[in-house]
């Protein structure tokens, strides 16, 4: 039986072509070259899986090389964390290398380039150098130090190395072409003075090589055949090759650079600088906070290495940038955990249930399947008693017809146990339900084979026996940001889109089989989602992290918000047609509440822009959103559509449109002045008293 082979991605095809061209397979060598200035994130996982995957496919060595050329930002902590992440993902490197291993060789090559007239010491300020480099459309000009003599350059460079000069006083630049159309080729920096302690070389060096110089030369030293990096380095390839040209020996392998599209994930930031900001400002609890997109954060949250490798395999390797939905990553996780995670019962928002006809002195052990997806998982015993906890949301005293959980007079099945029927409730002085009293059908025990056990009821609930329940701290994690692209909006700080509900800590109760659960063990809390044991857990206090829900709640929320806005727009029509002012006010209140309830910034701003058209109801909708949503302000809308909205609204025949447009302009001082003439003309002709009152309150 034939199986369809997976097609090669473009980098594999490049390697195949290289081999077909006569390149010896034994000379293939790859590398993963992180800078140890932060923890690795899910974007790095794509690069890791690509490089180490190629090594496995072609039986070629893959080096782990730390590009540690900037001691101001690099630490041993990051080196250790990166190695831990690679091991956890399941990959082994051939050799562990550091760019700092090559500092002497890089220095010697720099001296050689000075001697060959290919490098010089520049003593300009950084701002002067930036001016001198020109612009993408204007050629640069030679700096005043470009033609220093070889002897002077060698003396100055030696002094830089010896620490004779302060930081910022001199740099070493490659001497290439100040008129190049590629600005990176306009005499790029090779070395700068840094009086910083290096995590490996200590205080031996006072100068450090720039990434563009060190990277390609390090590839050459290690005889890397295919240097694979992300698309932002496309323009660097010319410089990569120029530096190699200065040192290349025909008897050695010459590395070649190839670029692929980096991973862009929605509802996430991938910038190390921004992730570091989250850590330093204590917005999250460290690099391994389970809300972080770092590999260590995902691991602590409960992600599996297999799910991340599967995700990287599915998204593939491409040349074009695109944004991947984080729900795909969550899907890969659910698929993996579904096969491996034992099913257990836990109640996170408990309410007490008393089975009034169950004997007080009776307890029994019921059989519960560990994982129906795994035939070898077997069964466990779960204790059952007269008093239980169920989820508070699983009971309504008076329930609608389509409520398929417990209510007075209705039956439900307790998972692995009996059918119960709601009989009555006990309330406290404030009217809150404190106990639910039920009866059970003794003949209905699950798996007993009795006629009563076969009876169909509307719903099945999870539960825990109160005398046997173990208290646990449960950390309910959610996405860190409420916007799909939190760091892409002009005039907005990515911190503006923090999800206030990204972490909620609750006290829950779990079944006694979890009493010995160990750190990083993973479970499915039935009907609730997948959870794992956090490293903070102790023998006396269990701590669980919510890894992911059983369903994509964000997709459901997104659809609900889109539908809510669509339905709200329909309600606008009713509001506009209503002639009675009091009745209109009643119709307006739910419209405003709906607008206020929408969290999705992109959806809000797009809806405003989409409704800027020559239609009174649409204009009213845009103005109402702009007034009542706290997610989008006038400054968040591009100037052209915003100006169009104000201009069209002030000319509208519909009083409500003019009224709310003036209210929005009153808050938008940046645009108010631009519309003073139009507002003044409107004031002279306005007939509506409410609109006139607003206009009279403006200084026109």
Descriptive tags:
alpha/beta, 7-stranded mixed sheet, 35% helix, 700 residues
What does this protein look like?
The protein is of the alpha/beta class. Helix content is 35%, strand content 18%. The chain has a seven-stranded mixed β-sheet with strand order 12-27-28-29-25-26-13, covered by helices on one side. A seven-stranded mixed β-sheet has the order 23-20-21-22-14-17-24, with no helix packed on it. It has a four-stranded antiparallel β-sheet with strand order 4-5-6-7. Helix 2 (42-57) crosses helix 11. The protein is flat and about 100 Å long.
Would you kindly provide a brief summary of this structure?
The chain is an alpha/beta fold. 35% of the residues lie in helices and 18% in strands.
Topology of this protein?
Blueprint: H1 10-20, E1 30-32, H2 42-57, E2 62-66, H3 76-89, E3 96-98, H4 103-115, E4 119-122, H5 126-132, H6 150-162, E5 171-174, E6 189-193, E7 207-209, H7 211-221, E8 226-230, H8 237-245, E9 256-260, E10 264-265, H9 272-280, H10 295-301, H11 305-315, E11 323-324, H12 326-340, E12 343-344, E13 346-347, E14 350-355, E15 364-369, E16 379-384, E17 387-391, E18 395-396, E19 406-407, E20 411-414, E21 419-427, E22 433-440, E23 460-461, E24 464-465, E25 470-477, E26 503-510, E27 522-525, E28 529-533, E29 542-548, H13 553-577, H14 581-597, H15 601-610, H16 616-628, H17 639-650, H18 655-667, H19 669-672, H20 676-685, H21 689-696
Parallel strand pairs: 1-2, 2-3, 8-9, 10-11, 12-27, 14-22, 18-19, 20-23, 25-29
Antiparallel strand pairs: 4-5, 5-6, 6-7, 13-26, 14-17, 15-16, 17-24, 20-21, 21-22, 25-26, 27-28, 28-29
């Amino acid at each position: 039986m034939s199986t369809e082979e997976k097609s090669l991605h473009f980098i594999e095809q490049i390697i195949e072509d290289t081999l077909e061209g006569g390149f010896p397979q034994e000379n293939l060598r790859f590398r993963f070259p992180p800078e140890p200035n932060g923890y690795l994130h899910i974007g790095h996982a794509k690069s890791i899986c690509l490089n180490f995957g190629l090594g496995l496919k072609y039986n070629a060595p893959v080096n782990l090389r730390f590009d540690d050329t900037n001691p101001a930002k690099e630490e041993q902590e990051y080196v250790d964390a990166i190695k831990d992440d690679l091991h956890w993902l399941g990959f082994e490197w051939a050799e562990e290398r550091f760019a700092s291993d090559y500092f002497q060789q890089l220095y010697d090559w720099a001296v050689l380039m000075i001697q060959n007239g290919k490098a010089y010491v520049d003593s300009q300020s950084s701002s002067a150098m930036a001016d001198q480099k020109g612009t993408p459309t204007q050629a640069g000009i030679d700096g005043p130090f470009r033609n220093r003599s070889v002897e002077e350059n060698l003396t100055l460079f030696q002094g830089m190395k010896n620490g004779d000069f302060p930081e910022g006083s001199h740099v070493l630049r490659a001497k290439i072409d100040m008129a190049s159309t590629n600005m990176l080729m306009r005499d790029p920096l090779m070395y700068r003075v840094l009086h910083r302690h290096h995590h490996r070389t200590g205080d031996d060096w006072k100068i450090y090589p720039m990434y563009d110089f060190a990277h390609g030369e390090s590839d050459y030293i290690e005889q890397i055949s295919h240097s694979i990096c992300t698309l932002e380095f496309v323009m660097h390839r010319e410089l990569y090759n120029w530096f190699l040209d200065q040192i290349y020996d025909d008897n050695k392998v010459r590395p070649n650079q190839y670029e692929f599209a980096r991973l862009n994930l929605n509802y996430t930031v991938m910038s190390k600088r921004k992730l570091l900001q989250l850590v330093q400002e204590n917005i999250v609890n460290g690099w391994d906070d389970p809300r972080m997109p770092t590999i260590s954060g995902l691991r602590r949250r409960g992600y599996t290495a297999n799910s991340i490798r599967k995700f990287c395999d599915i998204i593939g390797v491409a040349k074009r940038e695109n944004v991947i939905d984080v729900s795909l990553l969550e899907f890969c996780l659910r698929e993996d955990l579904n096969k491996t995670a034992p099913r257990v019962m836990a109640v996170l928002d408990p309410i007490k249930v008393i089975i009034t006809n169950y004997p007080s002195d009776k307890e029994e052990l019921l059989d519960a399947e560990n994982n129906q997806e795994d035939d070898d998982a077997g069964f466990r015993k779960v204790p059952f008693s007269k008093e239980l906890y169920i989820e508070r949301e699983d009971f309504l005293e008076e329930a609608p017809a389509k409520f398929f959980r417990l209510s007075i007079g209705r039956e439900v099945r307790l998972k692995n146990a009996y059918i119960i029927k709601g009989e009555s409730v006990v309330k406290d002085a404030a009217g809150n339900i404190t106990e639910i009293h039920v009866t059970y059908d003794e003949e209905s025990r699950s798996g007993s084979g009795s006629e009563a056990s076969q009876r169909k009821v509307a719903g099945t609930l999870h539960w825990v026996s109160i005398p046997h329940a173990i208290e646990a701290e449960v950390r309910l994690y959610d996405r860190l940001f409420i916007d799909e692209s939190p760091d892409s909006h002009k005039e907005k700080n990515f911190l503006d889109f923090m999800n206030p509900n990204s972490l909620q800590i609750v006290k829950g109760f779990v079944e006694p089989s979890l009493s010995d659960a160990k750190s990083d063990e993973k479970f499915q809390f039935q009907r609730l989602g997948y959870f794992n044991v956090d490293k903070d857990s102790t023998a006396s206090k269990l701590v669980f992290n919510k890894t992911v829900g059983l369903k994509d709640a964000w997709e459901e929320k997104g659809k609900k918000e889109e539908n809510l806005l669509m339905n709200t727009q329909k309600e606008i029509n009713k509001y506009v047609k209503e002639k009675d002012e009091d009745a209109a006010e009643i119709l307006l209140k739910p419209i405003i509440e709906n607008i206020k309830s929408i969290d999705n910034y992109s959806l809000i701003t797009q809806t405003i822009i989409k409704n800027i058209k020559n239609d009174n109801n649409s204009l009213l909708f845009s103005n109402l959103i702009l007034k009542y949503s706290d997610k989008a302000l006038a400054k968040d809308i591009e100037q052209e559509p915003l100006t169009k909205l104000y201009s069209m609204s002030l000319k509208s025949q519909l009083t409500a449109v003019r009224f709310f447009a003036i209210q929005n302009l009153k808050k938008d001082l940046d645009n108010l002045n631009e519309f003073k003439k139009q507002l003044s003309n409107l004031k002279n002709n306005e007939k509506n008293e409410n609109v006139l009152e607003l206009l009279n309150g403006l200084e026109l």
